[in-house]
Amino acid sequence: MNTRLGAILVLLLLLLVPAVTAARDGKQRLGVAGSAGTQMCAALPAADAHAGERVAIVDPAPPQRVRWATLEHPAGDACSRWQHRSDVAGQVFALQAEPAPGEDDIPLGVVVPGARSVDVAHGNAVAHTDDGAVLHFRSCTSSEGVHLSAWPSSTLKGRPLWHAYLYLGYDVEPTCSEAETLDAR
Prior knowledge:
This protein is α+β, with helices and mostly antiparallel strands. It has helices at residues 2-29, 77-86; strands spanning 31-36, 39-44, 54-59, 65-72, 91-97, 108-113, 115-121, 124-129, 134-141, 145-151, 162-167.
């Protein structure tokens, strides 16, 4: 009887570990991209982010789109000022966007290191990462800032895998639902 109960517990743990790992990795690895004049910048809290790493930048505002870029370090004064003004945490990098004919830079986005692919269908981006996570993106405004989030599905159930808030310094019309302002799990 104890062996059977032990086997069931081990099986449950094996089923739960990938979901917990994906949530933790998504929270640690995602960052924020923004524009500092003509320079695109990124702030990543992950200690393992490094110069030369190729990342996806997802514009979470509808219709969503994606640009690919490379992290560059040192970031320079423009990116340091952007990070301070936006009040985002993490290691700051300059972004060197890959050429995309007809595409403008993304003024505010989610940085997805380890993205294997990002599909955009019907105006919605879905990222597939090296660690097996599938991420759906949202952005909304509160009274003085922007909330960015990544979710395990296109519905806003539970808590996001990742959440960031950027202070704008001026009033904007709130558009967020309660779920979109929740901290990550």
